[in-house]
Structure formats: C-alpha cells, structure tokens
Amino acid sequence: MDDSLNDSFHQPDPAAIEGDRARHLGLVGATGVGVGAIVGGGILALAGVAFATTGPGAIAAFAANGLIAMLTALSFAEMSSKFPESGGTYLFSRKVLSVEAAFTVGWVVWFASIVAAVLYAIGFGSFTALLLRELATISGGGPDWLFDARLAPGIALATTLWLGLVLMVRSGGGGAWVNVAKVLVFGVLVVGGFWAIAEQDVSKTTQSLQPFFIAGWGGLIQAMGYSFIALQGFDLIAAVGGEVKQPAKTIPRAILLSLVIALLIYLPLLFVLVTVGTQDGETIAELAGSDPEAVVAVAARRFLGDTGYWLVIVAAVLSMFTALQANLFAASRIALSMSRDNTLPAVMSRVNDRTGAPWVAVLVTIILVASLVVILPDVAAAGAASSLIFLVTFAIAHVLAMLVRQRSKDNPPPFRSPAYPLVPVVGGLACLGLAIFQGIAVPAAGQIAVFWLSLGGVLFLTLFARRARLTDVSNIAANPELSRLRGSTPLVLVPIANPNNAGAMVELADTLVPWHVGRVLVQTVLVAPVDWLPSKDAKPLERLQEVQGRVVAASTQLGIRCETLTSISSKPMEEIARVAKMHRCESVLLGLSEISEDSQGTRLEHLLGELETDVVVLRAPKDWELSSSKRILVPVGGRGGHDYLLTRLLSSLSRSQKRQVKFIRVVPLAVTAADHRRAERELDRTASENSGAQCEREVIVSDDVIGTIASQAGENGLVILGVQRLGRRQKLFGNFTRKIARQTQSPIIIISRRG
Q1: 334 vs 336: CA distance, rounded Å
Q2: What are phi and psi of 751, to 5 degrees?
Q3: Radius of gyration in angstroms for the set of CA atoms belonging to the chain, rounded to a whole number
Q4: DSSP secondary structure letters along 201-213
Q5: Which DSSP string do the residues of 17-40 spell out, in sequence order?
Q6: Half-sphere exposure at residue 262, Cβ-oriented, CA atoms within 13 angstroms
Q7: Each residue of 477-503: pLDDT tens digit?
C-alpha cells in the first residue's frame, strides 16, 4: 500500500531507538548535516566538467540526477525511520544482511566518506589560499609564504585537525551559521543572475541555450555520471541518525529537505551561468572547456563583476569547510557504529563521558584523513573511487529498502516511500548504471575500491571476524526480528515425552526462537511395538494424550503459538533424528529428568551423535519455571568451541527478563600467581565475548571444583554447561557433568554446538 508523504510519519519502535540523552540534533541540525555536505562544493567542482561535456544540457543532467537522488533519498528515509540509529548504509546492511556483508558495506562507505573529507579538505585549503593571495594582491603584495605551494595542504591539515579536536569534545556537526552564510551567498549569486537576465534581450537568453545538448543523449548521460556525486550528502543524515531527536519524523524530513534546498540552489544557478555567464559569441561549453574548475567564478564575474568573483570564492571556502565538517562527522559515526558491533576495534566505541562524543572514532578518522592529504598520489582517482562506492552503496540501499518492506509487514517502517516498488527499482537501476559508467570512465577508481575492499577482507578475517560474529549472534538473540529481516525463519524442535516438564520446555523453546519470528515444533512420539494395537494396549495412547494436553495447556497459558507433530515409532530416538533432519532444524531442545552415573551410552547420547544441529538439553526439577531462575552461572574451564551457542542462549534468556549472569573459573589451591592472573584474563575475555560487560566474573581458588560450582549455583541458580560431541560413539555427558548434576538440584542447561 502506498502512503502519501504527510501520512507516512508514525511513532518509531522504542526498542530501536538509542538513549534520548544522546539525541541532540533537531530538524535544523540534521538538515544542516545534509546541506553542509551537499550544497556548494560539488557544483563548484563539477559544473565545469558537466558544461564541457553537454553544454547547457548540464541543467538537465543535474535535474535528472536530482530525480535519482530524490528516489534514493526516499529509500534512505524509509530505512532510517525503521532503524533510527547511527551507521547509515552499514546499519541497514547489518539489520538485513549477514555480518560479513555489513562489514563490507561499512568498510567501503567509511573509506568513501574519508576520501570525500580529503577532497573537501584539499579544496578548502586551495580556496582559502587563493582568497588570502587575492586579498594580499589588493593590498599591494604579501609575504612570500602566501605564495608557497605548501600553503594549501598546510591549511587543509590544520583545519582537519582543528575540526577533529572540536568533534572529539563536542557532539555536533550541523554547522548551522556557516550553512546559513553559504546559502545566503549562493542566493545572492542566483538573484543577481536573474536580475542580469531581466535586463538582457530575451533573444540572447534563448540563444545561449542553443544547442541545448551539444553531444546528444550520450553527452547527457556522461554529464550525469560525472556530476551525480555533487548531490551526495543526504545519506550522511542517516549515518548520524542515532543523534537525531524524534528520528522517525525528523530524519526523513531532514533528508528530503536538504536535497530540496540543494536543488533549489543548483538548478537556478546553472541556468544563470548558462544565460548570462558568457560573453557575446562565447558558449558555456567553450568557457568550461578552457578552465572547468574556475567556470563558476569566471561566469559570476561576467554578470556581477568583481563582486560575483569574490562571492564565488567566499562560497567555495564556506562550502568546502561545511562539507569537510559533515563528512568527518558522518565518517566517525560510521566507525562508531562498526566498533560497537566489533567489526572495527571495540576501543573506537569509547565516548566522551560529558558530551557523548565518540572521541576515539573521531581521532582515527582524522588521522586517516590527514595522512591521505599528505600521501595520496592521485586525488582525482581517489575521488572517483569515492563516487563509485557511494553509487554502489546507494544501489544496495534500494535493494535493502525492498527487503525491509517485504520482511517487516507486521512492523513496517514509520515512513514509507510512495509509488512502491517503482521508487527503489528505478532508483536502484539508475544508481547501478551510473556506477558502471564511473567504473568504465575512470578504471583507477575501480582498482582503488578493489584494493581497499581486499585490505578490509584480510583485516576482518584475521582480526575482527570472531568477535563480530559473536556480537551478531547476540544482537539477533536480543532482537529476534532481525531473523525475519534477514529472511530467516529459525526452527527449534522440541521432543517432549515427560508431561511434568512440558511447560518449561515450551517456555525455553520460545525464548530461543520466539513464535512470531520463527517456529517452535513440539514433537511427541508414541512409543509402541511394531505390532501395537490400540484396542488391546491403550497405555501408549493415554500417555501421548497426557503429554499433548500438558503441551497445549502450557502454550496457551504462556501465550505461545507452537506447532505439534505426532508420530508412532518403536525407536523414538531415530524418529527424532529423522524429523530434525527432514525439517532442517536450527536447534533441538531435549528434556532430561536425570543425568545418572549409569547413563553412559544411553539412547539419548546416541541420538546426540546423530544430530547435526545445535543441541540444548534441559535437566530441571518437576514443574520448574524458567522465570524463577534469576541467576545464571556459567562455569568455564577453557574454550569449549560453543561460544556462538552460549552467546545466543545468554542473550535470549536476558531478552525478556533481567538476569544476573556470572562466569566462574575454579583453579586449584596450588596455582601460581602468574597462572591465576592468566586465568583471570582468559575468564574476562570469555565473559566479555559471550555476555558483554554487564556480567560478573570470578576466579575461585579451590580443590573442590564440583562443590564450588554447586554452592555458587544455590537454590535458584540456572547452571549452563558446554560440552562437545567428539563422535557418534563418544558419550556426551562426562564425569564432570554427571557429578555436578548429582550434587545440585538446580536446573542445568547443557549446550552442544552442531556436530
């Protein structure tokens, strides 16, 4: 269903919103981020190239790019209202795609924003140096250092470092007053131009527009490819979405408003440059061909005299400054979002205690920008690579918008773009087409992008992959809707034979896989001989009915919708394994009344050897309720290879009820001080990776490992043990597990990763 723009704003999902204290940007501030990045720098740098390529048709090229940008902005607005957090395209990818795909997108977008900041830093340095030299010339000369070639990069470096220091201590980035000044300067240029148009003959105005397309439709497409990046910047608002007030309303409005402001400046300015910016007998294409970088300044001087020239220089200085500020601000927020997900080093997520500014992410970003200002050998190729990356990620954003719309029908985005699916389809194809053009026109751009992507892949696999994947598992468990957004419908199989633990099993299964995002399949096996006749032996049927009755009662009482499957077999364990394989279950939850000394080689352990899924075994007292266990104890003896399952289980258990999680490690009395410290470091790392910072951890010195764990569990503690399946003939429950089960009546969950 399509909704109008005005009717598409609703309240956001509170669970998706970061703390209100971190949100300080209103509509003006958020729009300022977009206006600061879009208005000025792009048109000053690229108008000449567009004019030289297609003549007056550059107006149409910018208008067509404006349409494509508007389509893209609608997709960004829709996803930003659904996910009102910082990160932009990276965040959208993390919600909808795998963690590996999200890292790829975030890595290249971060690079593109950094390179864009480099280009604007160099542009600011160049125009500022030019401004100083012009002022010195007017005053009759100046010191030699004004004409030193190192002045421009020096200004670029100093400004980058100064802005970085400001962003490290102050959480801001809109640059409101500078933006207002910049818009006013461009407004004067446009008004002055139309004043000049009103004073000249209509025939001259008409003649200056002929021929409109000097290179036909091919030239128009080329001009679009060269100049689309001039409208890039609205996406930076999404990148800082976690700092925007009332994000479901403000972010879409700010994205669209910043783009509208840019087009209201760009299109009239281009028309003015074409119609009154040239001398008699001269075309705008000829003027741009002779000096494309200075075409705006030269044309402004033609219709406003020296005042127009100075206005362009001032506009350029202001535009480059605000664009540099906006890109530094957004790039640091992308890095912050990635570091929180451990797809970049976690240290980059540190923030200023007073202002909340991510000072480490800002510091790393400005170091990279400053380094590239100094060492980048080919600024033009790097800029083209930045444009290529943005276009590709814009195309990806359209695809993500379609996936989000399809997969979140029960909880749709508060803002929904009109004319769906026309908007994402047309916008995505247009962005992809322009990206292909950019890759063909500047082959070095593709090479730089591939190099950076390859470097990121190596770093991810060697440094970030494990912790990033654990964090991703935790995020999915804490927010099960992510499974649906990623197109997954996880299934947990719950074989139940004992009616006394039916309620606990159903509740735990729903905790692992909530019914509204996945499936809980309760299996009851009627165990009977091959020649069983119900009319002669009703006991198996009576027991089956008792179990099913308890399952239905428990699921109804808990408000859980679970599916049931009943089968008849003389070999129940083989039947469970068959069903698990046939339904491709993600995990199997088994119930066990006791783990006894003589249970080695039992049918249950044989079943576990056959299963190729994650297995969770619950040993709990009769009629135990999951909600009664507010403490979770996780004994650690080393790396058991089940970190992903443990992380998923802990996050699931803490999703609906706050629980106290404690990791312990028991070391012998004879332990040395060095070994004790090493055990503390290992336990701290394990606890942080599997449960984050909000958990206790303790190394206990004792020779009675079993007794220590039993006493730590207490009466209401839930103990989680991890075991490995080494083979089909190997027992699952070793002596350690059996002894703990014998010495404590606390409920025990035994987890084993897929075999």
Answers
A1: 5
A2: -115, 145
A3: 32
A4: -HHHHHHHT-SS-
A5: PPPGGG--B-HHHHHHHHHHHHTT
A6: 37
A7: 888 889 889 988 889 999 988 888 888
Find tokens 């001087």 and name the residue: 301
| Cα distance between residue 733 and residue 606, in whole Å | 11
Between 247-276 and 176-199, two packed helices, what is the crossing angle to 10 degrees? 30
Q: How is the beta sheet containing 491-495 ordered, strand by strand?
A: 563-569, 519-527, 491-495, 587-592, 614-619, 748-752, 717-722, 631-635, 660-667, 696-701
Residue 68 sits at the vertex; the CA angle it makes with 64 and 70, to the nearest 5 degrees, is 110
> What is the C-alpha separation between 26 and 92, in angstroms, rounded?
22
Can you tell me whether residue 353 is helix, strand or coil? coil
User: In the 3-class helix/strand/coil scheme, how is 53-79 assigned residue by residue?
Assistant: HHHHHHHHHHHHHHHHHHHHHHHHHHH
Residues whose CB is less than 8 angstroms from the CB of residue 684 and which lie 6 or more positions away in sequence, other chains included: 697
Is the previous residue joined to 211 through a cis bond, with omega within 30 degrees of 0? yes
Q: Is 693 exposed, middle or buried (0-12, 13-18, 19+ CB in 10 A)?
A: exposed
pLDDT score of 600: 46
Whole-Å CA distances, 194 to 187, 190, 276: 11, 6, 9
The conformation of residue 42, written as its DSSP 8-state character, comes to H
What span, in angstroms and rounded, lies between the C-alpha atoms of 83 and 335? 17
3-state secondary structure of 515: coil
Q: How far apart are CA 146 and CA 553, in angstroms?
A: 85
Q: How many CB atoms lie within 10 A of CB 211?
A: 13
Structure tokens at 728: 């089909």
pLDDT above 90: residue 606: no
Residue spans of beta strands (DSSP E) within 477-532: 491-495, 519-527
> Contact 171/356 with Cβ under 8 angstroms?
yes
Q: How many residues does the chain have?
A: 755
- Bridge pairing between strands 748-752 and 614-619: antiparallel
State pTM to two decimals: 0.87
In the chain, the amino acid numbered 518 is G
Element (H, E) at 137: helix 99-138
CB 685 within 8 A of CB 342: no
Asked if the model's pLDDT at residue 142 lies above 50, the reply is yes
Residue 461 neighbours by CB distance under 10 Å? 11
Q: Tell me if residue 568 falls in helix, strand or coil.
A: strand
Between CA 75 and CA 401 the distance in angstroms is: 6
Confidence of residue 742 (pLDDT cuts 50, 70, 90): confident
In angstroms, how far is the first alpha carbon of the chain from the final one? Answer: 45
In terms of DSSP H, where are the helices of 523-601? 539-558, 572-582
Q: Do residues 368 and 114 make contact, with C-beta atoms less than 8 angstroms apart? A: yes
Indicate the SS3 state at residue 620: coil
- Given the structure tokens 């006894």, which residue do they identify? 596
What are the tokens at 110? 């971060």
The pair of structure tokens assigned to 554 is 């428990």
Q: In which band, very low, low, confident or very high, does the pLDDT at 620 lie, cut at 50, 70 and 90?
A: confident
Q: What is the largest CA-CA distance in the chain?
A: 117
| CA separation for the pair 542, 560 (Å, rounded) | 24
Return the closest-CA partner of residue 452 out of 105, 60, 90: 105
pLDDT at 731: 53
CA distances from 11 to 86, 250, 252, 628 (A): 18, 11, 13, 34
Instruction: State the amino acid at position 510 in one-letter form.
Output: D
Q: Report the pLDDT value the prediction gives residue 173, as an integer from 0 to 100.
A: 54
Listed residue (435, 447, 560) closest to 504, CA to CA: 560
